[in-house]
Design brief:
Helix content is about 40%, strand content about 20%. It is built from 5 helices and 6 strands. The chain has a 4-stranded parallel beta sheet with strand order 3-6-4-5. Strands 1-2 form a two-stranded antiparallel sheet. Strand 1 and strand 2 form a beta hairpin. Helix 3 crosses helix 4 and helix 3 packs across helix 5. The chain is globular and about 35 Å long. The two termini are about 20 Å apart.
């Protein structure tokens, strides 16, 4: 909360911080999820589109080249992958145009209205691109 002086009168206002949650695509939607957005480049195996109940922003995911490199050796390359994905996100924001920049803008717009749940298919709940994306959105 911060104070704003208007014509000599101090008024208090609340600044709402975006709330991004993470959830596996294989979990049932919760009432607290808000806007659910699948952020994987590929549709999750075994899930029907109508069953997921989520918008799909595939362009928020890592580039196909980075995704393939990550899946080739995920355990050994986590830090490299996370850094390279952050670089892709930063470059998209700096350019202000392109599919990834548009996807980031859409996620930020949704967050203004309320909670956004980033939906992903990865088994690892901590080491996945959605966790990097969440961290990035919260810090930029």
């Amino acid at each position: 909360m911060g104070a704003v002086a208007l014509s000599g009168v101090q008024r208090w206002h609340t600044v709402r911080m975006p709330n991004y949650l993470l959830e596996r695509a294989y979990e049932a939607p919760a009432p607290t999820d808000g806007a659910r957005v699948l952020v994987d480049r590929l549709w999750p195996r075994g899930i029907k589109k109508e069953a997921l109940d989520a918008a799909w922003l595939r362009d928020a995911a890592p580039s196909p080249e980075l995704r393939k490199a990550w899946h080739a050796a995920p355990e050994e390359r986590w830090e490299d992958f996370a850094g390279l994905y952050r670089s892709e996100l930063e470059a998209a924001d700096a350019a202000g145009a392109g599919a990834m920049a548009e996807a980031l803008g859409e996620l930020r717009s949704l967050a203004v209205a309320g909670t956004v749940t980033l939906v992903f298919a990865a088994k690892d709940l901590e080491r996945n691109h959605a966790a990097v994306l969440r961290e990035y959105l919260l810090s930029h």
